[in-house]
Amino acid sequence: MTTREYTTTPDQTQSATRTLLGIGLMIGVGITGTLDEVVFHQLLQWHNFYVHTTQNWRIISDGLFHIFSSLLLGLGAMRFWAKRQLLATLNDGRALAAGVLLGAGAFNLYDGTIQHKVLQLHPVREGVANILPYDLAWNGVAVVVLAAGLIIWRGVQRDRR
Predict the structure, then answer these.
(1) What is the pTM of this model?
(2) Is the CB of residue 60 less than 8 Å from the CB of residue 103?
(3) CB atoms inside a 10 Å sphere around CB 158
(4) In this predicted model, what pLDDT tens digit does every residue of 8-47 receive, in sequence order?
(5) How far apart are CA 104 and CA 110, in angstroms?
(6) What are 72-101's pLDDT values in tens digits?
(7) Are 114 and 138 spatial neighbours (Cβ–Cβ below 8 Å)?
(8) Of 154, 19, 1, nearest to 86 (Cα)?
């Protein structure tokens, strides 16, 4: 199999890098939403998307959340496929990795602060006497993932100058 060499202008490289970052953000949110739904909602059954209702509506809210996260994964994959020729000019997947980590970390931090605390849609884990360790772990992981994405993205930006 042969590899093609593409010649690109700095503007094309910047456009491809930003496109790849955007695709990564979409996929990162989709991955994290799907993992949250499968692991914490279904397997561990720690919470539902919306807990202040009947069991039937809890399941419906989880299903709607799962559709949303799956849709983001699908749209991200389709956009990646549609832009594959532009993205092939980069020969560097760091923008995608940064986007995935930024999307995953941002979604988890949003979930842990806005949905869990401000809107009180659901706690990290229902039925425990002390929720604080769960909140700290949830948001701590989010901050670490977000920071990793930022570090990678800054490296991409630095190398593109």
Answers:
(1) 0.90
(2) no
(3) 8
(4) 788 888 889 999 999 999 999 999 999 999 999 999 999 9
(5) 10
(6) 999 999 999 999 888 888 888 999 999 999
(7) no
(8) 19
Sign of the Cα pseudo-torsion (63, 64, 66, 71, in order) = positive
- Under the banding of pLDDT at 50, 70 and 90, the label for residue 4 is low
> What are the backbone dihedrals phi and psi of residue 130, each rounded to the nearest 5 degrees, phi first?
-125, 105
Enumerate helices (H) and strands (E) in the chain, giving the number of each. 5, 0
**What is the Cα–Cα distance from 51 to 39, expressed in whole angstroms?**
17
Q: Write phi, then psi, for 105 (nearest 5 degrees).
A: -65, -45
Residue located via tokens 């901050």:
143
DSSP letters, 91-142, are ---HHHHHHHHHHHHHHHHHIIIIIIIIS-S--SSTT-S--HHHHHHHHHHH
Helices 10-35, 55-82: axis angle to 10 degrees equals 160
